[in-house]
Design goal:
The protein has 385 residues and is of the alpha+beta class. The protein has 2 domains: 2-134, no CATH class; 230-380, Heat Shock Protein 90 (2-Layer Sandwich), CATH 3.30.565.10. The chain has 8 helices and 11 strands. It has helices spanning 2-52, 60-68, 96-110, 132-199, 206-225, 237-249, 277-294, 346-357, and strands at 74-77, 83-87, 114-119, 122-128, 233-236, 256-262, 272-275, 299-308, 311-318, 361-368, 372-380. The strands form 3 sheets. Strands 6-8-9-11-10 form a 5-stranded mixed sheet. Helix 1 packs antiparallel against helix 2 (60-68), helix 1 (2-52) runs antiparallel to helix 4 and helix 4 (132-199) packs antiparallel against helix 5 (206-225). It is elongated and about 135 Å long.
Length: 385
């Protein structure tokens, strides 16, 4: 948290710096442009006086003023805007006349010329362009902004990545600790279960107790796998879905109808994908539980498994309260929940398992508020060799 605060402070100072720098450089370039304007007016006056000078006039000052301009491109034209004199202009090797004609047309469209009255009734015009130094000075704020914005982009990326990594560490630490904490009572339950089996081998409740203890072991195993690279092996997704369906059917309210439909495969390996079966069962069960919560205890949930090209598609549809379109992505964020209890990690966990661990997709396929929602999982088929 402290590192993130420092990063945001750096970001704020960087924005303040670039804003101040751009403003100051722009202000400086405006002043420099005014100085160049004044220099051109002096240069024009020196040119006029030089033209009017006779043999008795000392022209050294006028000449020095004219010669001092080594940076600003200058164009002097007659009254018809034909170029008669230039300075600091690099002429092309060909089409010189067309070059000057286009140049003067562009300058006339963007600036008022400086008039030079060389004699009664004879007026010439002076046009000038910005010096290279002024052009570079005007360009500098944008270059500076680009550099600073690139730095800010890197900083924001670092902040976001750091925040996500921190979330990941909390997430992984929480799951690992949960698995560790479950280990001790599960071991004790296994011991007590073996004792019960030896004393009451014919008790009708023992199979159910065994099933639930095994289930606890599976839950602990699932939590222990979060944060570690899963072992993906060719897995029959149909069996995964059928096992999740069979388990959840007896553990949800009888007011909720749970239905499973599987399209008949065209080939024996149609539903084979590289997967971690316990984790994918966890995803399916979480989606079913999420649907139960969305229906307030009564309604219909349908599991529909199909094969389309090289994709294995599982739709989980409910008749719950539905989701607004603007929240389609929000529901997968850690902490998002509409319940008064719970951490809002179920769908976030599903997304992590499907997309990060299995390279698949999970998303809200469709939803209508007050009518229901369909979540879709897409996995890539893998031929079992």
């Amino acid at each position: 948290m402290r590192n993130r605060t420092i990063s945001w402070i750096i970001l704020a100072f960087a924005l303040l710096f670039v804003g101040t720098s751009v403003w100051f450089t722009h202000h400086l370039s405006q002043q420099f442009a005014e100085v160049e304007q004044q220099r051109m007016e002096v240069w024009a006056e020196a040119t006029r006086l030089l033209v009017l000078a006779d043999e008795n006039t000392d022209i050294s000052l006028y000449s020095s003023i004219i010669e001092a301009n080594t940076t600003i491109p200058v164009y002097m034209t007659d009254a018809d805007y034909h170029v008669i004199l230039t300075r600091n202009v690099q002429e092309p090797k060909q089409d010189v006349e067309a070059f000057y004609r286009k140049k003067i047309e562009r300058l006339r469209a963007n600036q008022a010329p400086i008039e030079v009255n060389v004699s009664p009734g004879v007026t010439q015009y002076i046009f000038y362009e910005q010096s290279n130094l002024l052009r570079q000075l005007r360009l500098f704020p944008w270059v500076q902004m680009l550099v600073v914005l690139s730095f800010l982009a890197l900083l924001v990326t670092y902040i976001i990545t750091s925040y996500r990594n921190e979330q990941n560490r909390v997430w992984v630490g929480l799951t690992k600790e949960t698995a560790h904490q479950l280990g001790t009572p599960i071991s004790s339950l296994n011991g007590w279960l073996e004792l019960l089996k030896s004393r009451y081998p014919d008790d009708d409740l023992l199979p159910d107790i065994t099933t639930d203890v095994n289930r606890l072991q599976l839950v602990a195993e699932r939590f222990s796998r979060i944060g570690s690279a899963p072992t993906l092996v060719p897995t029959d997704i149909r069996q995964v879905v059928e096992q999740s369906y069979a388990y959840m059917r007896t553990r949800i309210s009888k007011k909720v109808e749970l239905e499973l439909k599987v399209d008949e495969p065209e080939t024996p390996d149609a539903y084979i994908a590289l997967a971690d079966a316990p984790l994918m069962e966890w995803v399916t069960e979480n989606l079913i539980k999420n649907s139960v919560d969305a229906m307030d205890g009564h309604g219909w949930i349908g599991l529909y498994l199909q094969h389309n090209g090289s994709s294995i598609i599982l739709d989980v549809t409910d008749t719950g309260r539905g989701i607004e379109r603007k929240r389609y992505n929000q529901v997968f964020r850690p902490g998002y929940t509409t319940k008064t209890r719970g951490w809002g990690l179920g769908l976030s966990l599903c997304k992590r398992i499907v997309e990060e661990y299995h390279g698949g997709q999970i998303f809200v396929h469709q939803s209508v508020v007050s009518k229901g929602t369909t979540f879709r999982i897409v996995l890539k088929q893998t031929v079992d060799r």
